[in-house]
């Protein structure tokens, strides 16, 4: 059974049946030397398998923050022996950098290399909730 647009849990689109999906994000405070990352891994029924939030010290771009959040999420999945099949990100430059052989975010190349090692199936990185829904519906 494929999910429909009603298969939403807040701003979370459920993954296709029997898959685990990782959603991560970052919150930067303007003018502060601090940020926070959050991660949730859920199944196709919306059940949370694991989640975490973590403060980070530093000041960085939205793209670098999203990459740090994604790496934390993949490390969390690895620590819990969870096989994540889908990763969702809302920042197009992040997905482009991960799927490109060029170094689009050269200052974050070490983070990109970590993510590539943790999540080798980068074709399952969706740019947005809408693109994931379209993929599951076969649009």
UniProtKB/TrEMBL annotation:
InterPro entries recorded: RNase_H-like_EbsB-rel (IPR052929), RNaseH_domain (IPR002156)
UniProt xrefs under Pfam families: RVT_3 (PF13456)
Gene Ontology MF term list: nucleic acid binding; RNA-DNA hybrid ribonuclease activity
Domain of life: Eukaryota
Domain annotation RNase H type-1: ranges: 29-125
PANTHER family xref list: BNAC02G40300D PROTEIN, PUTATIVE-RELATED
Protein name: RNase H type-1 domain-containing protein
Source organism: Dipteronia sinensis
């Amino acid at each position: 059974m494929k999910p429909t647009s009603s298969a939403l849990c807040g701003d979370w689109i459920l993954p296709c049946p029997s898959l685990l999906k990782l959603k991560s994000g970052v919150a930067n405070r303007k003018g502060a030397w601090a940020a926070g990352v959050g991660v949730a891994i859920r199944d196709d029924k919306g059940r949370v398998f694991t989640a975490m939030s973590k403060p980070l010290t530093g000041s960085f771009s939205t793209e670098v923050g999203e990459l740090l959040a994604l790496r934390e999420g993949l490390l969390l999945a690895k620590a819990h022996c969870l096989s994540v099949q889908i990763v969702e990100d809302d920042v197009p430059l992040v997905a482009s950098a991960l799927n490109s052989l060029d170094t689009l975010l050269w200052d974050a190349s070490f983070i990109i290399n970590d993510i590539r090692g943790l999540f080798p199936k980068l074709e399952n990185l969706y740019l947005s909730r809408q693109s994931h829904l379209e993929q599951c519906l076969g649009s």
